[in-house]
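Course assignment 3, question 2. Fill in each field.
Student: A.L.
Task: Predict the tertiary structure for the chain below.
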Amino acid sequence: MTVKFYDHLDADIKAILLTQIRNAWTHHSTSLEGNSLTLGETDFILQEGLTIQGKPLKDHNEVYGHAKAIERIYGLLNATEAIDKQDLFQLHETVLTERIMDIDQPVGQWKTQSNYTSYVDDDNRQVWREYPAPRHIDGLMTQWLECLNGCFSSNLDPQTAAEAYADLHLSFVTIHPFFDGNGRMARLLANLPVLNAGLPPIVVPQEDRYRYKRCLSNYQSTVENLPDLHNLSQLPDNPQKQHFTGVCQSYWAQTTVLLDQANAMQKKRLSA
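Answer field:
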């Protein structure tokens, strides 16, 4: 059984820590995608089950969805079988609470249409980016799941856990398997090896949104013929990837501080 980062804590201290981490993880990950709720408002909504006057219903639903998705992530740590695409589909349904029936924008299924984004290149020009075509997604994600499940059979130290997080994160958002929610899904799923190693999750702070998004874009720009990507071995292991790994390690500060505070409360209780 996985040794979790909170196993040594008393039940009440553990509950507070997990609530703090859930709030921070949910707030920052949804804020990266444009959610307008503050950390305090996120805490209030999840703790009290009430809405914030003047805030969009969509933002409230995103917060609830992400918080429930975190519960699913913790649950997957205890899975007796390999994580499969059905687990990913269920997580996607949890994350995307706005389930408008649209055959071209399926929730809980791989994308059915090509998806695009725009970025500014090194020559200060706005450029289109097309992600891998829908026909390649099932094969790519089968490979991605093999990588994910492989992490569970390894004993990871903090360095290798951060490397696994960065690799899974980068490859997931580069594949872009869903029509929407890819960033939130990546930030949840890439933490599975981290949590399985007995470490607190890596949480990307919304204050670092520009650098974070730029790191992802810079790496994707190094992938040749991205729309026809069909094998993960085609993804480069290069300085851009190594830079992102280092950036991810710095993002541990969000949860490490909270864990240190919980440990201090536990120590204070034991010494009383």
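Instructor remarks: The chain has a mean pLDDT of 94. The longest strand covers residues 116-120.
Grade: pending
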